[in-house]
């Protein structure tokens, strides 16, 4: 079941999500066996987009033991990290370069613009090693047609039920080549938080709130094991 948390504007949405993030991570760190993997270390999947980047920028000033946070990415464009289109690169600029997060705690896809098969297999292997029981928080943005990560309506990627990571070669949103976590991977998160703003996303948000078909509206298939929260501005509210 999706919990809808509505806010008057993006700034208040980001502030509320940031506060909740801080509380959640602190609770995991306070317990020696806290977190979904039972080791007191939090596993977090980051997202991009307007809301996602604003959220990451807001995390800079939090007092968090970043040495006990592992960071993953919901999807990545088939470009090197230094490319302006790279989700990992944008996350580094927005947050990772500003906090004492060990480089070993950052799990990127390692795409280079070439064949994606090896990178996809490696990332799925990394998930099995670094997050064998899943994620504590999976952050998601959402497109106006309901896409999350690089899972678009009526595509093989959104229908994947076994693999945790797949390559996308025909994304309707440029660039065409990407690697992405699947809904099967999203479903391994304890908490799924969608950060959504903008009137153009209201229709999709309504479908998410009522549990529509994931094939039609991919975000509707994103569900956490403990909670699924739709953080939404009033103009995008269902």
TrEMBL record:
It is an enzyme of class 3 (hydrolase). GO terms for biological process: carbohydrate metabolic process; pentose-phosphate shunt. Pathway: Carbohydrate degradation; pentose phosphate pathway; D-ribulose 5-phosphate from D-glucose 6-phosphate (oxidative stage): step 2/3. Pfam families: Glucosamine_iso. Gene3D superfamilies: 3.40.50.1360. Its EC number is 3.1.1.31. It catalyses: 6-phospho-D-glucono-1,5-lactone + H2O = 6-phospho-D-gluconate + H(+). GO terms for molecular function: 6-phosphogluconolactonase activity. Keywords: Hydrolase. Residues 9-228 form the Glucosamine/galactosamine-6-phosphate isomerase domain. NCBIfam families: pgl (TIGR01198). Hydrolysis of 6-phosphogluconolactone to 6-phosphogluconate. Belongs to the glucosamine/galactosamine-6-phosphate isomerase family. 6-phosphogluconolactonase subfamily. This is 6-phosphogluconolactonase. The gene is pgl.
């Amino acid at each position: 079941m999706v919990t809808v948390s509505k806010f008057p504007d993006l700034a208040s949405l980001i502030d509320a999500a940031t506060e909740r993030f801080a509380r959640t991570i602190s609770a995991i760190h306070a317990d020696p066996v806290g977190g979904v993997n039972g080791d007191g270390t939090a596993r977090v999947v980051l997202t991009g987009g307007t809301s996602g980047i604003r959220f990451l920028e807001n995390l800079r000033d939090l007092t968090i033991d970043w040495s006990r946070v592992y960071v993953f990415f919901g999807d990545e464009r088939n470009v090197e990290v230094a490319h302006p289109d790279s989700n990992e690169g944008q996350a580094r600029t927005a947050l990772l370069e500003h906090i004492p997060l060990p480089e070993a705690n950052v799990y990127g896809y390692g795409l280079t613009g070439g064949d994606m098969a090896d990178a996809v297999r490696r990332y799925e292997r990394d998930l099995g090693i670094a997050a064998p029981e899943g994620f504590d928080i999976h952050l998601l943005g959402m497109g106006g047609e309901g896409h999350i990560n690089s899972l678009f309506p009526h595509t093989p990627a959104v229908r994947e039920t076994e693999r945790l990571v797949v390559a996308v070669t025909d994304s309707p949103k440029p660039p065409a080549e990407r690697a992405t976590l699947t809904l099967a991977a999203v479903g391994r998160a304890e908490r799924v938080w969608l950060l959504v703003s903008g009137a153009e996303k209201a229709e999709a948000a309504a479908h998410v709130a009522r549990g529509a078909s994931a094939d039609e509206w991919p975000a509707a298939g994103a569900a956490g094991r403990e909670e699924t929260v739709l953080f939404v501005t009033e103009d995008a509210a269902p």
